[in-house]
TrEMBL record:
This is Orotidine 5'-phosphate decarboxylase. It comes from Pectinatus haikarae. The keyword Signal does not apply. Belongs to the OMP decarboxylase family. Type 1 subfamily. InterPro entries: Aldolase_TIM, OMPdecase, OMPdecase_AS, OMPdecase_bac, OMPdeCOase_dom, RibuloseP-bd_barrel. GO terms for molecular function: orotidine-5'-phosphate decarboxylase activity. Catalyzes the decarboxylation of orotidine 5'-monophosphate (OMP) to uridine 5'-monophosphate (UMP). Residues 17-242 form the Orotidine 5'-phosphate decarboxylase domain. Signal peptide: none annotated.
Amino acid sequence: MAEYKFIGGGITMADERIIAALDLRTLAEAEKLVEKLGDSIVFYKVGMELFYAVGPEIIKYLKGKNKKIFLDLKLHDIPNTVAEGLVSLMRLGVDIFNVHASGGFTMMSRAAQRVREEADKMGINPPKLIAITVLTSMDGDDWDGLGMHMPIDEQAVRLALLSKDAGLDGVVASPHEAARIRRACGKNFMIVTPGVRPTGSTADDQSRIATPEQALKNGASQIVVGRPIYKADDPRKAAEQILAEINPADC
Ligand SMILES: O=C(O)c1cc(=O)[nH]c(=O)n1[C@@H]1O[C@H](COP(=O)(O)O)[C@@H](O)[C@H]1O
């Protein structure tokens, strides 16, 4: 999946395994960051903060720049509402979108079926539909507060298997659970892991974290990185350090 471009004697790498989160509030800030990151980042995640403020304009902008897009709105509602909501989002032309696995099997299978039907009608490949397992910010205390009896890692695997059975393409999970999910769900299942922190970065509000290299070794197909890139003094340098970390032989 890694793609390499040689520019002016130096090496710039674009690697679809890194998804940079655009957790910003305005189009201008997002554009500035995307410009700064240039061709070091090809995949962006647009979440609630930016999409609720800016709407489809951000998707149009990223598509115009030939970037890939993970639209992270984490739908969680009754089956019909989620399925039809996803159909509306498909019209934007995103590459990945998501629902909460805790919405249940019926919701997820209806959503997956509806997305495939609509993609057929539109004559496109369906966007990848993935499900949140257990949020990476949750620690043991948060978990106990929900009254859940299964350990977090077992619950994450259970939700991943449920998502797979419902016909989804993959899950969002913590790097801590990626290895078990990979073993349970097989090599073609997408495992997107946020909660990724390069060595030396602060955890912020994340709990179940790992370095980019460790997350990929654990079986993640893609990693999501937000603050360690967009809050860095030099975001491009931060992105390139992560690229170097995950492509050691090439640097
Ligand atoms: O769905 C997500 O992307 C997501 C799921 C999850 O369990 N944990 C999680 O952090 N995320 C998102 O991943 C990004 C992580 O951002 P940073 O903690 O700044 O790297 C944020 O945009 C979160 O909304």
